[in-house]
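pasting for the record
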Amino acid sequence: MTSLSQAEMGKPSQRKPALSSSTMESARRFLYDEDEPSPKANVALPPAPKTGLSHGRGGEERNRLNPIVAACMATLATLRTYGGKRILCMILAIAIIASASVGIHSLATPKKDKERAATLQSLITGSGVTSQEDLLKIGTAQNHALQWLSDYDKTEVDIDDPFNLERYVLAVFFFSFSKSMDHTKPVSGWKSQTKWLTESHVCNWYGVSCVSDSTQSVETISLENNDLQGTLPSELAAMLSLEGLNIGQNSVGGTLPAKLAEARNLRVLVLKGNSITGTLPTEFGSFQNLRQLDLAENQLTGSIPKELENSFTLKALNLNDNDLGGSIPEFIEMGSLKELRLEHNNLKGKLPESFSQLTALVDLRLSNNTITGTIPESFKKLTNLEYMFLDDNNFYGEIPSDFFFQVTRLKEFNVQHNEFDGKIPTTVQLLGDLKNFLLDHNLFTGSIPLEVGLMLDLEVLSLGQNKLENNIPDQIMTLKNIREMNLQSNDLTGDIPSTIGALRKLERLHLEDNKFSGTIPTEIGSIRSLQDLRLYQNSFSGTVPDEVCELVSEEELTYLGVDCTVTCPDSCCTKCF
């Protein structure tokens, strides 16, 4: 369909070609195999049968034909002279088929309603939803939406009804992410587009839900993982009742429209898992009611705007897995924030002391950046914290001794791959809900605290690659839920406690590269869940117990590594060192 540009809306139609009476008569004679009348004989000709090729109008319109048929009739007179009747039949058949096709196309193509288009154009531009330039520019999603709404939308509502504006915005959304610009039967290429761009109410369109009051305005658009490809249109800001937009896990590209921040009732904006580029607009700090902003797993660059601090209603800010740089803003005014995820970026600098004011914070993830400095003493005020990830940064210094005394709700604590030093605080005994305690690849010294044995919900204990020394405390062997114990590459000494057999859920035990001695306990053979056992680079002696080798033969223990000084029966050890 052509564009609704003003240049074409008043274009006059072309007149159909007319044939002379003599041409028509000659063609008719050839068609019915009649001879030319003799000049001397006055013989009456039978009337020509009705073929349906003329419009049946009198006067000037009598010989006005479909252009295709007219061309063929003009050819007939010429062919008659050369005896081309077979050719004639073929041409006539083609003409009839072509004429029928043109007629069908005419029926399928609605007549342009210039007045309706002009009214819609005024409604759209007058409300500031779309500029006139974008609306009339051929090929834009806005222009396609206008064409569909003015010429193809079968919904019977008043032209100035605000409902039309909402349908227009959704049509812009559709054509912004559509692989086809056909208006008769729009095909998006999405996994599902049920009832989109049909006469059905927008509340019935796939992924769209509406408020329950009499307005039935659009409340949420949820098209996550639906094969959307395109860019996000700013027109969505005009949907005054829109509270949720989730188009995560698609192929959305382009930049973030700053105008989207004008969506005054928007509470949830989820765009994660796309290919959005550019910077984070400073205008995004002016959302009035936003609770969740999830832009994770995109290609955003630049720094985090300081203006985001004004988002005092925000509860979850997810900017992880982008290419954001610079320092972390203070976030002073964001007292409602419960989830802050900035991991896997290029952030640098120190942790802001102001974070201690985010007392509602439950989930803090800053992994895989280049953040430096220590954990501020004031962080002990974060008493609601359950998840704390500082791994793979440049942190140093000690963990504040009273940190775990007040931050007791932790379920996961991860500071791997930093330069923390000092002793592991004995206040870890207060972490009764902790499941993962990950301190490996740091510079911690001293002994493993006996109090670790009081962390009864612990599933993963990872203290490898430090400078820990002395024995493994017997108290650790009371951790009934432990699945992984990584103590490798320290200076630990002594025997492996025989009570290790009580760890019936243990799957991985890494004790390599220490100073353990003695024999390998037979009790390890009672841990039927064990899959990975690494004991090499120690000073063990004797023979690998048959009970342990039995785990290997039953294909439960898939890796067993020991020193070559330990006797290992055939087909028992995976590798000796």
